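Reminder to self: C-alpha cells first, then the designed residues, so the page reads top to bottom the way the pipeline ran.
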C-alpha cells in the first residue's frame, strides 16, 4: 500500500545556496493576532506551523492549523497522543491572502531571527573575530 499523503516539508529551493534556521517570538502585547489574519477561532484551532515563501514582495504566507474540535485535542498531551497514533499531525494548509510576509513578521512577532549559511560551510562553526558597519557609522 502506497502512502500518497501530502506532508509539510522543510524549507527548500532548487539550488539551496543558503540554508539555515529561524526562530520567532509572538508579540502578545501589541501584535496583530495571527489567528485573526488566518480567519481561525482560537478556541477551535491551533496554528502549528508556518511557511514564508517568495523571492520578492509580497510573497506568500501559509499557516498549518489543526482543528482541535474535530480531532478531540484539549491539551498538549492529547496533541502528542494524536501524533503518535496517526504518525503525523493532520493540519489544514491555509494561504493567507491580503497579508505579506513582511507584515506578519513586523506585526505579529516581538522578535524574528533567520540565520542562513552558505552552502559550502553549513556544518562549520563561525567565530566572530571582528565587527564592522557598512556604510561606516559614527
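Designed residues (138 positions):
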Amino acid at each position: 500500500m502506497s502512502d500518497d499523503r501530502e506532508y509539510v516539508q522543510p524549507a527548500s529551493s532548487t539550488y539551496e545556496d543558503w540554508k539555515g534556521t529561524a526562530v520567532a517570538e509572538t508579540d502578545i502585547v501589541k501584535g496583530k493576532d495571527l489567528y485573526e489574519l488566518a480567519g481561525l477561532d482560537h478556541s477551535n484551532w491551533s496554528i502549528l506551523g508556518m511557511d514564508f515563501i517568495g523571492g520578492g514582495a509580497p510573497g506568500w504566507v501559509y499557516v498549518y492549523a489543526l482543528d482541535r474540535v474535530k480531532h478531540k485535542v484539549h491539551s498538549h498531551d492529547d496533541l502528542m497522543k494524536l501524533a503518535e497514533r496517526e504518525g503525523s499531525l493532520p493540519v489544514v494548509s491555509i494561504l493567507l491572502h491580503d497579508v505579506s510576509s513582511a507584515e506578519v513578521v513586523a506585526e505579529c512577532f516581538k522578535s524574528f531571527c533567520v540565520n542562513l549559511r552558505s552552502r559550502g560551510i553549513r556544518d562549520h562553526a563561525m567565530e566572530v573575530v571582528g565587527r564592522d558597519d557598512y556604510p561606516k557609522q559614527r
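The radius of gyration is 19 Å.
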